[in-house]
Write a structure and sequence with these properties.
This protein has eight helices and no strands. The protein has 208 residues and is mainly alpha-helical. It is globular and about 45 Å long. It starts with a helix and ends with a helix.
């Protein structure tokens, strides 16, 4: 799969707060996966982690609460089977995006922010293969990887839009509640499309 390499390179010149915003946007879009697949109680718990991530970025959450929530998620994740043929793998991986955004608040490294983007691209690339009926192709050194599918391309375009919003911000206050709300709102259409695609994948795979 062709990755969003240009955007990931830009992360190395992005402020620590900007890295958090990038990861939060990935988490918001990726939440469509666990919202479609998780059981009701688990879905509420994971949505709570996402809400905390946004609040923490705005400075409205206690550091202790953030640490405790990450710990609770780690305990919850242990109850899931990491088999890629099962829903739990996709639930955990999509929820980890919110956990990673929280971790970036204390460890703002470009590589960690990139991990959010790469993870979501991988999950959606898998869905593209499943929905298209194609089989995975091994790309050898020197060969051109296949172009991204619809969902992965959707994510790449959304990542680009987030980065452009960050660079266009006049006063540089990426942690303002107003700006964070705008970024979150801009993710909703893609999140809903991802949720719809996740349901289609689940039906094909017999998960539902």
């Amino acid at each position: 799969m062709t990755r969003n390499a240009d955007i990931y390179r830009e992360l190395h010149a992005t402020s620590p707060a900007g890295l958090v915003v990038f990861a939060l946007a990935c988490a918001e879009r990726g939440s469509g996966i666990f919202q479609a697949l998780a059981e009701h109680v688990e879905g509420e718990q994971l949505s709570g982690i996402l809400e905390l991530a946004w609040s923490a970025a705005a400075g409205d959450a206690d550091d202790g609460d953030s640490a405790a929530t990450v710990e609770e998620f780690e305990e919850l994740a242990e109850s899931f089977d990491p088999d890629e043929s099962d829903t739990s793998f996709f639930v955990v991986q999509s929820a980890l995006l919110a956990v990673n955004a929280i971790a970036l608040l204390s460890d703002p490294r470009p590589a960690r922010a990139e991990l959010s983007g790469q993870t979501l691209e991988t999950l959606l690339g898998d869905f593209d293969f499943r929905l298209s009926g194609q089989t995975a192709v091994i790309v050898r050194a020197g060969e051109t990887p296949p172009p991204p599918g619809r969902l992965q391309r959707l994510e790449q375009e959304a990542q680009t839009a987030t980065m452009r919003a960050l660079t266009a911000l006049p006063n540089g206050d990426v942690a303002s509640r107003e700006f964070l709300d705008e970024i979150r709102e801009s993710c909703r259409a893609a999140r809903d499309e991802i949720a719809s695609a996740t349901e289609a994948v689940a039906e094909l795979a017999g998960w539902l």
